């Protein structure tokens, strides 16, 4: 066996591992969205992809890492949906922000997972701390750009501070999600729309 063939074998094995990992994450995303976070035990997720619990965690290390990667996958799916709608990679727009909130109302299991992990990850030692820190920075920057774009187009008041407005929108969305978990009658997207209307010139 030549070194080159050995390398090819390793690359092939690595590619298969990545493909299997992606398959697990997509399945876990669907199961949690459909059945709920509380019902999605590692055993049930493993059964859904035809693995043992040990086999499932082999790909992620811990249950916490698995759930973090599920949330990353959700972010990627949301970004991909936005790119399809807008015909390119683009960034987060005000309209797209509302659409994401509307979609979240259809996947309570993912909202529960996000809300619970976000609260736990405030502890800097938590496995998800860096994920949420990075995500908050990214979403805040994208929303700030969206506010500036709305201001440039004359659809949002020029006296607004883009970053402060972005932080307020994020806090409103997270707070509404927490309330919605207790009361599904809360119209999250409708309240976000009304808040945005109040920012018009």
TrEMBL record:
Residues 18-78 form the HTH tetR-type domain. Residues 41-60 bind DNA. One of its GO terms (molecular function) is DNA binding. Keywords: DNA-binding, Repressor, Transcription, Transcription regulation. It holds the Pfam family TetR_C_6. It comes from the Bacteria. The keyword Membrane does not apply. SUPFAM superfamilies: Homeodomain-like, Tetracyclin repressor-like, C-terminal domain. PANTHER family: HTH-TYPE TRANSCRIPTIONAL REPRESSOR NEMR (PTHR47506:SF6), TRANSCRIPTIONAL REGULATORY PROTEIN (PTHR47506). This is AcrR family transcriptional regulator. The lineage of its organism: Bacteria, Bacillati, Actinomycetota, Actinomycetes, Micrococcales.
């Amino acid at each position: 066996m030549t070194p080159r063939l050995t390398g090819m074998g390793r690359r092939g094995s690595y590619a298969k591992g990545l493909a299997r990992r992606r398959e697990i994450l997509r399945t876990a995303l669907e199961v949690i969205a459909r059945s709920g976070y509380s019902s999605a035990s590692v055993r049930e997720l493993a059964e859904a992809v035809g693995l043992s619990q040990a086999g499932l965690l082999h790909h992620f290390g811990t249950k916490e890492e698995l759930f973090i990667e599920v949330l990353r996958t959700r972010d990627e799916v949301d970004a991909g949906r936005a790119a399809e709608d807008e015909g390119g990679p683009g960034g987060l727009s005000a309209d797209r922000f509302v659409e994401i909130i509307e979609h979240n109302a259809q996947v309570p299991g993912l909202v529960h997972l996000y809300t619970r992990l976000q609260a736990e990850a405030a502890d800097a030692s938590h496995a998800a701390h860096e994920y949420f820190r990075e995500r908050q920075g990214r979403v805040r920057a994208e929303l700030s750009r969206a506010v500036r774009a709305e201001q440039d187009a004359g659809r949002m008041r020029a006296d607004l501070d883009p970053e402060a407005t972005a932080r307020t929108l994020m806090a409103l969305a997270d707070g509404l999600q927490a309330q919605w978990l207790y009361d599904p009658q809360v119209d999250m997207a409708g309240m976000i729309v009304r808040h945005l209307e109040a920012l018009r010139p």
